[in-house]
Design brief:
This protein is α/β, with parallel strands linked by helices. It has a single domain, classed as TIM Barrel. Helices cover about 40% and strands about 20% of the residues. It contains 8 helices and 8 strands. Strands 1-2-3-4-5-6-7-8 form an 8-stranded parallel sheet. α3 packs parallel to α4, α4 crosses α5 and α7 crosses α8. It is globular and about 45 Å long. About 45% of the residues are buried.
């Protein structure tokens, strides 16, 4: 298996003693880079510290829609200050309309702020979207797509939605194989574990490869190269 790139993980969710073991397993499996996405202010410093200590960890800082309601006032200014001082992307942020306890307008406002931040600082953005494709497309129509790129992580939509998002310029990252894989262009495809075990990325490549009539080795190499292109603005 060639070197692999995990486009979305959450190493910060591990206990302190578990990070080194997880990274050792990732290296042993061939995962040489991994994008570690914060989900709220409580883990921004942790993600930055992981990246500072481990060059294979690519940091992203954002406010996940699940955490919007609990965000302290001024979070956007503090996020901008951290991003301005560090080589990091924006995310995980987005919309989740399956969570009915979260006001939709509050989620849209938080995402709008983070989209504008990605544009101002020239950073790639990792996006969470559940049952909100129409609102997401409407927001991009108003704000535009950040030039450094947007990836929709753990994509679980239809092939039609996949094509529509790519037409907007978005990238699609998969945490599990599925039929929509066949609707993704080669230069827009990424793979991710979406958890705290990046070592699982080669197994995902092996499971996804048959959907694309590729070998696992070929798909792992393709998505590694794509990851290096997508995250180029923040790679060490």
């Amino acid at each position: 298996m060639p070197a692999c790139f995990d486009a979305h993980c959450h190493l910060q969710d591990l206990p302190p003693g578990g990070v080194e073991a997880a990274l050792d397993r990732a290296r042993a499996s061939g995962v040489t880079r991994m994008a570690c996405c914060a989900t709220g202010e409580a883990d921004w410093a942790t993600v930055l510290a992981l990246a500072a200590a481990h060059p294979e960890v690519v940091p992203l800082l954002g406010l996940h829609p699940w955490n919007v309601a609990d965000a302290r006032p001024g979070w956007e200014e503090r996020l901008e200050a951290l991003l301005a001082g560090h080589r990091a992307g924006v995310g995980e942020c987005g919309l989740d309309f399956a969570r009915r306890t979260l006001p939709r307008e509050v989620q849209v406002h938080a995402l709008r702020l983070q989209l504008r931040l990605a544009v101002r600082l020239g950073r790639p953005l990792a996006l969470h979207c559940v049952r909100a494709w129409g609102a997401l497309k409407a927001l991009f129509a108003e704000e535009g797509v950040p030039p450094a790129g947007v990836l929709v992580h753990a994509f679980g939509g239809s092939a039609e939605t996949a094509r529509e998002l790519q037409d907007l310029g978005l990238w699609l990252s998969f945490a599990a194989p599925g039929p929509a894989l066949t609707a993704v262009r080669e230069d827009r495809l990424l793979l991710e574990t979406d958890g705290a075990e990046p070592a699982g990325l080669p197994a995902l490549a092996a499971a996804a490869a048959p959907f694309l009539n590729r070998t696992a080795v070929d798909l792992a190499g393709l998505t590694r190269r794509n990851g290096e292109r997508f995250f180029k603005e923040i790679l060490p």
